[in-house]
Specification:
This protein has helices at about 10-15, 15-20, 35-40, 90-100, 120-130, 150-160, 160-170, 185-195, 210-220, 265-280, 305-310, 330-350; strands at about 5-10, 45-55, 60-70, 70-75, 105-110, 130-135, 140-145, 175-180, 225-230, 235-245, 250-255, 285, 315-320, 325. By secondary structure, the chain is an alpha+beta fold. It folds into two domains: about 5-140 and about 320-350, Gcn5-related N-acetyltransferase (GNAT) (Aminopeptidase, 3-Layer(aba) Sandwich), CATH 3.40.630.30; about 140-320, Gcn5-related N-acetyltransferase (GNAT) (Aminopeptidase). The strands form two sheets. A seven-stranded mixed β-sheet has the order 1-2-3-4-5-14-6, with helices on both faces. A seven-stranded mixed β-sheet has the order 8-9-10-11-12-7-13, with helices on both faces. Helix 4 links the parallel strand 4 and strand 5. The longest helix has 23 residues, at about 330-350. The chain starts with a strand and ends in a 5-residue tail after the last helix. Belongs to the FemABX family.
Length: about 350
């Protein structure tokens, strides 16, 4: 395993952040982007921009820092680190831990979420490096990803028969899906559609409107986010918000009216977004969350309905490694792991009615 060193990113690197991160070995992740870092600042996280270097390559990553009373500080590399090989993750994290120890704030742990598929070999590699497996956080730790590299005709043929038929039927029936201009009216409409959607047994809108408005505005202002609506009887009936970051498109938010007459409308809005993202240079489309691959057909899973819809576009479900903790200060981490994290999440929820992470 090649050694790595970590340093603070320079002012010039931070200014070019959204050019540098998509050039990482795995293509970067939207949750490591400049717009998302500004969203996290409003939630109480401090972004620490890092350049982590080996003799082969440099990878840019944000460590989101949150201060924990009494204990110190937690670093969270959301959907990171981004390394060329799974074997590079332990030395990469060692470099980040060494850098964290040199900074003020008494960092006691670094939480990571490397985007490598979860395998027995990967779990053994991480366990051998002393990384501690914890509960997964992000919606797309298990997700369906559609390859956008085929031409449009082949892309349609690659959909499942259910998805392909829904798209063709909607087009034949004259259903129209289209991009819409961002703005307050669009935001309010999208939020309302999300509130009415019944996504399995999950709450469709776990955060307040102000959070979503700020999130959408950041990505729209950066030229990365687009809205798509289908209309029925002159009113929006299905909506989607999709982000393009580097060559990766992510279906971030969606919603719909519960009772609609246009067959295939939700498939068509995705198809419109897929083709638009492909035209803009995306090479993959992340549907951002399904049940794990071994629970796709489990009707008791809260994301069962979403999983069935998303896998009508691609049956490939990837289970990523999920969350691991790198221990920086063992004694403090034991307190955090045993009770501190649970208490911090409970207090944060009572105060803000929003998730801690």
């Amino acid at each position: 395993m090649a050694p790595f060193t970590a340093r603070a990113a320079t002012a010039d690197e931070v200014a070019r952040w959204d050019e540098l991160v998509p050039a990482n070995p795995l293509g970067g992740n939207v949750l490591q982007s400049g717009p998302f870092s500004r969203v996290k600042v409003r939630q109480g996280w401090q972004p620490i921009h890092l350049a982590v270097e080996s003799q082969d390559y440099t990878s840019y990553v944000i460590a989101y820092q949150r201060s924990i009373p009494v204990l110190g500080a937690l670093w969270y590399l959301i959907k990171g680190p981004d390394t060329a090989r799974p074997e590079d993750v332990p030395p990469f994290v060692d470099a980040v831990v060494a850098h964290a120890r040199r900074r003020p704030g008494r960092v006691f742990a670094v939480k990571i979420e490397p985007d490598f598929p979860d395998t027995e070999e990967l779990r053994a590699l991480f366990a051998g490096a002393g990384l501690v497996k914890t509960f997964n956080i992000q919606a797309n730790d298990s997700t369906a990803i559609l390859d956008l590299t085929p031409d449009e005709n082949q892309l349609l043929r690659n959909l499942s028969s259910r998805g392909r038929n829904a798209v063709r039927r909607a087009i034949r029936d004259g259903v129209r899906a289209q991009p819409v201009e961002a703005g307050e009216d669009t935001y309010r409409t999208m939020y309302a559609l999300m509130g009415q959607a019944q996504q399995g047994r999950l709450s469709a809108v776990p955060r307040p409107y102000e959070y979503y408005r700020g999130f959408w505005q950041e990505f729209v202002d950066a030229g990365m986010g687009r809205f798509y609506f289908v209309y029925e009887d002159g009113k929006p009936s299905v909506g989607a918000f999709v982000i393009l970051y580097g060559r990766k498109a992510t279906y971030k938010d969606g919603g719909s009216l519960p009772k609609r007459n246009q067959y295939g409308d939700s498939h068509l809005v995705q198809w419109e977004a897929i083709l638009d993202m492909k035209r803009l240079g995306a090479r993959e489309y992340d549907f951002c969350g399904t049940p794990p691959a071994d629970r796709l057909k489990d009707k008791d899973h809260p994301q069962y309905g979403l999983g069935m819809f998303k896998t009508s576009f691609t049956k490939t479900v990837t289970d990523f490694a999920g969350c691991y903790d790198a221990v920086v200060r063992p004694r403090t981490y034991r307190v955090w792991h045993a009770v501190g994290e649970r208490v911090a999440r409970q207090i944060h929820w009572r105060r803000h009615r929003q998730p801690f992470y």
